[in-house]
């Protein structure tokens, strides 16, 4: 085979030359973005250069600016930090430094620069672009570049990717690295929780975030901390110390044995006075007599190996940044690649930087409402969800007695991370509103047996981080596997006035049946909200279901270990079987996050022709590898991708056809994919959806008959918004036979998996 991994068939006469650098504080996922820029850039016929040590590499030039090839980024997806290095570079802040940087870029013939960093780095990039013509002029006059160079490189394209653990950038809902950082924080807080519980201690935990409370707030939600302090929303009371103590005391009186307070490093009171962890510790010790410790999490928060979310985010944004380079003209302002409502965006970079600076300004001016407004739209909602569901209210949120409801909570289908978190939030929020929450154990069969018990505030303590299902979950569908008459009878007997179901596709099927049966059984004419929870992410009416993020993280952890084994054994291809039923979500997103060679999914099926082409592709890759440094590779196969080409069959075909070039093994991940502790994203989604489910129930209680069809709904996440599509509305949008929605947003990622594994580039001649 003729392979040149530095060029592609699509090579232009004059290829674009793109440099990529990482700058500012390192963030997990930066490597994934560099990998995507390099590989996607090469696939588009560009020459891609890595600039080592951030802007310092631009200023220094020489071998700090290196041409990257396909293999130079192999294995980078799972590596934390940034392998091309980052630095805080003072010389780049000076014109002389930027002059040298410009000279180096011109000497390498580079016309575009993709910068992955925080607001400082992106400001620097924009300054560089705006000065570019002047810099070239000066270099030309000083004979440091030729006249021709000055004309050829008259325009520098800049594209920004936001790599920052703080999630402090406007123009994007989420930044590369923030979610991984949250993973590390939650792991630490969960660990601290066990010692706090054992000794009945209080812990004050400081997390990063000078002007941004995203990490602190999300960690507070995801770990069920008793109180959080963030810069954008300081406590509004003069005497916040007493409020905090009252809350901690109320929680203790109910039986809590631990107190956890999370403080952002930039936390302040309303007069801008810093709130320091040591001070909080003294208050808790002196006023409540709590044995209190302070823990500063520090650099563990930088993250290590990226979470699945960051690998995928960085990959699709890296791809988008190359597309933005290729689209750009001298007239277009420098773009920033963001993510809004689960969609990659491309907006003006400097506007985003200006808005980001406005947050700090608003805080400085004590305009906290504005500071909250400048954050992504969910931030304020999350803050309210946190206070309403975590802090035991002092009765101010109680509804009048006639509006209080008896709410049943039931889990359905297979266990999924976040089921317990949703239940815990629903219980606490419901109690704050005056409702009475009931646990229905073991799904609908449990209801029929009358396994119903009132849930208490302390009874669900700690559930936020528990995997599986505390209530017990069951696949039995009412009306199919369980007698609907008995369901209706028990609901009436226990006077259940609303239902919150947490589950996957079975739950959706159950919802349809319950809706249909309402004409016959008046006790079913109650608001019923379904919180989607299944690893397969196949519930119609939502972009995400609880448990799917936890599952992806389990898959990447398993695949990282498998990859290590494959790499060590050399020339081994693992066919890894993942769950998902008839939905290829886990295979595709898992494939993107692990750098799989390809994925087999039910949406496409498997044909012999495809297998032949995949074998040829693998042969080309292995022929191109250095004999003794050959790589391991993985392929993800969804469990239902094909009846004929099972995981074993595919692996055997690869073994036979590999002809000594490569060998194959299988790994069936099975129930490991349900995960142990739920991921922070699943916990956060669970909190938000559960609270909104209770709101939905309240709003639809006693609905007029003509609106009765709205009573039964999925509490779904569409982009960043929570919607309540009714089951009636969703049935036409569902493929009931194959148990999935007709359309899946993630399907557009499918081809990227193949593209980033070199399909099209590494094709042997016949
Ligand atoms: P983090 O979110 O981790 O703080 P950041 O990108 O904001 O990341 P900074 O230290 O502010 O981090 O900036 C990183 C580098 O970007 C600086 O060391 C400097 O080289 C460059 N830079 C920052 N601001 C400017 C500027 N106004 N002009 C030129 N270069 C700048």
From TrEMBL:
Annotated region N-terminal catalytic PFK domain 1: where?
A: 1-391
Q: In which pathway does it act?
A: Carbohydrate degradation; glycolysis; D-glyceraldehyde 3-phosphate and glycerone phosphate from D-glucose: step 3/4
- State its Enzyme Commission number(s): 2.7.1.11
UniProt activity-regulation remark: Allosterically activated by ADP, AMP, or fructose 2,6-bisphosphate, and allosterically inhibited by ATP or citrate.
Q: Is Nucleotide-binding one of the keywords?
A: yes
In the record, biological process GO terms are: canonical glycolysis; fructose 1,6-bisphosphate metabolic process; fructose 6-phosphate metabolic process
- Protein residues bound to beta-D-fructose 2,6-bisphosphate: 475, 534-538, 572, 579-581, 639, 665, 671-674, 739
User: What top-tier enzyme class does this entry carry?
Assistant: transferase
Annotated GO MF terms = 6-phosphofructokinase activity; AMP binding; ATP binding; fructose-6-phosphate binding; identical protein binding; metal ion binding; monosaccharide binding
Question: Where is the protein found, in the record's own terms?
Answer: Cytoplasm
Top-level taxonomic group:
Eukaryota
Q: Does the keyword Cytoplasm apply?
A: yes
Residues involved in ATP binding: 25, 88-89, 118-121
Q: Where is the Phosphofructokinase domain?
A: 17-324, 406-697
Q: Which UniProt keywords apply?
A: Allosteric enzyme, ATP-binding, Cytoplasm, Glycolysis, Kinase, Magnesium, Metal-binding, Nucleotide-binding, Transferase
Which catalytic residues are annotated? Answer: 166 (proton acceptor)
- Residues involved in substrate binding: 164-166, 201, 208-210, 265, 293, 299-302
A GO cellular component annotation here is:
mitochondrion
Residues binding Mg(2+) are 119
Q: Where is this region: Interdomain linker?
A: 392-405
Cofactor(s) needed: Mg(2+)
Region entry C-terminal regulatory PFK domain 2, spans: 406-766
Similarity annotation: Belongs to the phosphofructokinase type A (PFKA) family. ATP-dependent PFK group I subfamily. Eukaryotic two domain clade "E" sub-subfamily.
**What is this protein's function?**
Catalyzes the phosphorylation of D-fructose 6-phosphate to fructose 1,6-bisphosphate by ATP, the first committing step of glycolysis.
How is the subunit organization of this protein annotated in UniProt?
Homotetramer.
Q: What is this protein called?
A: ATP-dependent 6-phosphofructokinase
Specify the species: Phycomyces blakesleeanus (strain ATCC 8743b / DSM 1359 / FGSC 10004 / NBRC 33097 / NRRL 1555)
Higher taxonomy: Eukaryota, Fungi, Fungi incertae sedis, Mucoromycota, Mucoromycotina
